[in-house]
Amino acid sequence: MKYFAGVDVGSTQAKCIIVDEQRTISARALVETGANVARAADRCFAAALEAGGIARESIACAVGTGYGRFKVSFGDLQITEITCHAKGASLLFPQTRTVIDMGGQDAKAISVRDGEVVDFVMNDKCAAGTGRFLSTAAETLGLGLEEIGEISLRARNPVRLSTVCTVFVESDIMAYVAQGKKIEDILGGIHSAIAARTIALVRRVGLEPQFTFTGGVSLNVGMVKMMEEKLGQPLNVSADSHYMGAIGAALFASEHALVPAGN
Amino acid sequence: MTELQYQGHLHQLQKQLMANYYAALTASAEGSGEPAAYLLIGGNPVELLRAFDILPVFPEVNALQLAVKKQSLPHIQAAEFMGYSSDNCAYVKADIGQYFAGRKTPFATIPEPSLLLCNYVGCNVYLDWFGHLSEYSGCPAFQLDIPFIRSKSGFPSKDDVDYVMRQLQRLIERCEEITGRQLDEDRLRECVRLSSLTGELWSKIKHLTKHTPAPYDAYFDSVTMMAPLYCLRGTPEGLVFFETAYAEMAERVAANRGPLETERFRYVIEGPPPWPHLRTFRDMFSRWNAVAVASTYSTVGGLWEFGFRHDPDHPLESIACHLLEWNLTNRNFLQRYEQIERYLDEWHASALIIHSVKSCRLFSAGQGDMREYFTKLGVPTLLIESDLEDPRYFSEAQMRTRIDAFFESLGHRALVQEASA
Ligand code: SF4
Hints:
The complex is a heterodimer. Chain A has two domains: 1-93 and 239-263, 2-Layer Sandwich (Nucleotidyltransferase, domain 5); 96-237, Nucleotidyltransferase, domain 5, CATH 3.30.420.40. Chain A starts with a strand and ends in an 8-residue tail after the last helix. In chain A, helix 2 (81-92) crosses helix 8 (244-255), helix 3 (131-140) runs parallel beside helix 5 (169-178) and helix 6 packs across helix 7 (221-231). By secondary structure, chain A is of the alpha/beta class. In chain A, 37% of the residues lie in helices and 22% in strands. Chain B has one domain. Chain B contains 16 helices and eight strands. In chain B, helix 7 crosses helix 12 and helix 9 packs antiparallel against helix 10 (236-254). The two termini of chain B are 27 Å apart. Iron/sulfur cluster is lined by residues 89, 91, 123, 125-126, 359-360, 362-363 of chain B.
């Protein structure tokens, strides 16, 4: 049996997906990226091999993606996460026309036809409205990143945030805490502000259903709900949504580079 | 892919001529050369200065040279320390910084100005920049007020032309005061004639990139030819340079040689390059075998490829028209669209890259709409952002991801088109 690996080295986490010849996911692994990007790629690849009980020699092709894609030393190809997310989303949700990807450091909107990128936009250098913003907010409130989405769902009177700037959000939150606002209402406000900003980004490629939500933030139920409310549309989300880049990369590996990177 | 190490005769000649030019600047700075006039690139009227043996100095060219040589940041920071805001155009800051650092650069000592000629074509920053230089140097600024092209037709009115010509008359008087001699009309005609021949060659060179493969990159390699176009236009050496350049490029066309081993994508690019990261930026395109076949940036100094020529029989009028009508910065936005559309069409390009520059609010404003406009026309368009002078505004990983993803999808589009053909 031959296998194909996709390794998505993001700014916060590195993810690896291994698929078999039927394009079925055989193994997955996730590690924190940390300071050594090349090591993170190796580590998550090794972890996925181990999880699937797969020998390294049976990997016929590996594709690197994510900002650390050039650091995947064992990769045969590098393809951007934009192309890979589009690919992965179309495997899991074939009707996808728009991918909304919210990762640790950036947010992207990708317009897709038949698994291929038609257009895309990304947030600029600043981390406003990304996963980093949410983790800063969670830290400020002394909560874990995984709990804030759930709590935000209980908001009755969400506060109005004056900023989506990651630097200023801390003092904004502290001010609301000092005013005695409820935690859920503060979190409701935070989720609402980020959702609005993300949808503004999506609007630039066109709001075309179906929408597939990918990246680490897609695990946040509060964010999913908030985005759905504002879009007036359901979002496709899967338990593997944050592996979407790696899934796409693994599919490319199995096709052995339909779209070669570089040359 | 390997980028062919293109170091033809043209490059050597450029180096040598620009070294001579910089030596002339240094001589002027040391008091043994010609008087210097600072002016701006947009529609630059160098012919008038050359007719008086006044040396043209372009603060923009000096600033970009500093950036290419990775020397701009300390000057930018010095200017910020003086109080220039982080939002100010970094060309200005680098220039002011180097002015106070004794005007000594790795390529020349920049002379003090005898004339501060602010040819105001579109950019309002020019006014303040030269106003400040005037304050620091004590040299009065001479304002050439060029009315913006406001009509849909894209032509200046007769009044516009008269208005500029009257100002050129006063500029002549100022040059006469500075040099202590009268304008030699034959000399002016000669400079304009040389410019006219130079413009003809430059236009022909630009039309050569219609050929597949393009003989040179109309963005990254045009840069080599732009410095002589501004600094040496209207001189015999300038003309020789363009004769050499044309011959060399025509030869490359005949031999089907391009700047890359293969030409896979042909694109048009809008906006100036990120000078502090030029090499890295170029590689982001080369690795995709993507070649720029036309660039709007190379028309800031003048738009010759669409027909403009200086006219030795009407020297002042043609200088006025150059300033008014025939340079990118003084044109309206619809004309900019039209220019890009012509490039896409006549130069057979399949994509548009817009490099938006933080420093330059005036010319970056509206590029979001430009992107929409071309996307609606069905032209794959990528908008990327950094800066032309400040090395701090360049995020390599993000830039690379955007460019890679863009060419990945373009590559796919080409495959689909091939399959359906
Ligand atoms: S603002 Fe733009 S046009 Fe004006 S001086 Fe700066 S870079 Fe040049």
